[in-house]
Sequence to fold (450 residues):
Amino acid sequence: MKYFSNRHNRGSNLRPPDLYEYFVDSFWFKTIDLESQKINEPLRGKNKADIVIIGGGFTGLSSAFHLKQQFPDKHIVILEGACCGYGASGRNGGFCVTDIFLDRSKVKENEIEDAVEVSFYGLNQIKHLIAEHGVECDIQENGMLEVALNDQQINSLKDQVERLTYFGLEATFLDEAALQAEVKSPIFKAGIKIPHGATLNPAKLAREMKRVVESMGVEVRERSVVTRVTPGKMNVVDTELGEISAPILVIALNAYAHKLGFFRDRVFPVAVHQIATAPLTQDQWESIGWQNRQGLSDHRPLYSYSIPSVDGRIILGGVDFTYYNNDGLSSGNDKAVTRVIEKDLFEYFPQFEGLKIEHAWSGTTAYSLSRIPSVGVTGDFQNVYFGVGFSNGVPSAQTAGRIIADLMAGKSNIFTNHYIVNNRIPYAGPTVTRGFFGKLYKWKTKTFGW
Ligand SMILES: Cc1cc2nc3c(=O)[nH]c(=O)nc-3n(C[C@H](O)[C@H](O)[C@H](O)COP(=O)(O)OP(=O)(O)OC[C@H]3O[C@@H](n4cnc5c(N)ncnc54)[C@H](O)[C@@H]3O)c2cc1C
Fold:
């Protein structure tokens, strides 16, 4: 797999990649009062480290955590362009599912137990951070509700029950009446109830993980946009104000990786959008039930997912997954898409029509044609580790950190032998055609789809 091309970064003019938005109206950022958070000093001057991690999202932070555990004496530096959690990790829908790596076609019967352990690792690791490191992230471990809006989707729900049952996991099919007892909506036809999985405040988790890795001795440099990477026996990383060299690199950039020349023909950015309503009144909550406060998602190809926040709002996202031409990054806010999502919310719960939407924001996540991420090691000197292609990375980016640390330590175990390790991501086609195929897919699903 061609993982790196410096075509884009050649030359002495190190123009920073065009990455960040001026203002993101994220509800999660508001809960952590991002503007008054301590943002670390940028990297300046010439520096050396044992391991440099580029990207301060869940993949980068989890890599730092696991690497510091395995190699306490190594000098590990995280370079984050904005602040830890500023990318998808701090902006997402807060869903932490446990079945992300349970692909029936890839797991043989005698591998089920191990596959389930790896798949649950992300959530278990977050619970470990909470229990052992005092991380606060408003976790609600109430399981998941998946719903169908029509007969085709009911079939898809049944497939889902079958898949989870194959892996020995509980999933209960709910007919319309049983589903309405969980959550009331005139358009929900059936559902499944899954006891596993959690929802959380992702920005709190990211900022808390920054605190934890710093307490372990990891150096975190924020406001340090990497402008060029020159891989080699000694990798050289340029930032806007400084430079650092290290024998080992970790690329933890997910949807931003292409901007620095990594995985540009395999992984492409897709913008995902979120809204947060004003807090609902007690009567409004009673009108929809949802007393068990699960993560709620539907089975459309362009699905929506929603959670009740701890302060009584509905936070909903998905519906329109936007590809901006030429692998453009999310604009941070996109009014047109926000309206589409609002419409969806009011179709779920028509009695809320007119309810105030207090926040609307978006972020960029990574997709590939297979939707299977890849975590591994590459480069001419086998010293560039990476975790990319996480479209749903809240739990699995945690697992990526564990895999990267185990690979670096030369271990052979259920993590390093997992099918996502050095998974060959399919060619994504020329950049110029991606927008066309994205639009075609949307048109097809809206016209004929489910
Ligand atoms: C709106 C939205 C909703 C989502 N909902 C869910 C969900 O509910 N559940 C789920 O499992 N997943 C969800 N996802 C996906 C999930 O958030 C990501 O898969 C996951 O956070 C990826 O983590 P990461 O650390 O690999 O990448 P990121 O969190 O994107 O981290 C990459 C970091 O690299 C930094 N960076 C980029 N370029 C540079 C550079 N040149 N120099 C230095 N730093 C740089 C960025 O600032 C960023 O902080 C959602 C994503 C979005 C955008």
Q: What stands out?
A: The domain at 7-92+202-267+370-429 is CATH 3.50.50.60 (FAD/NAD(P)-binding domain). The chain has eleven helices and 20 strands. Residues 283 and 289 are 10 Å apart (CA to CA). The first strand starts at residue 45 and ends at 48.
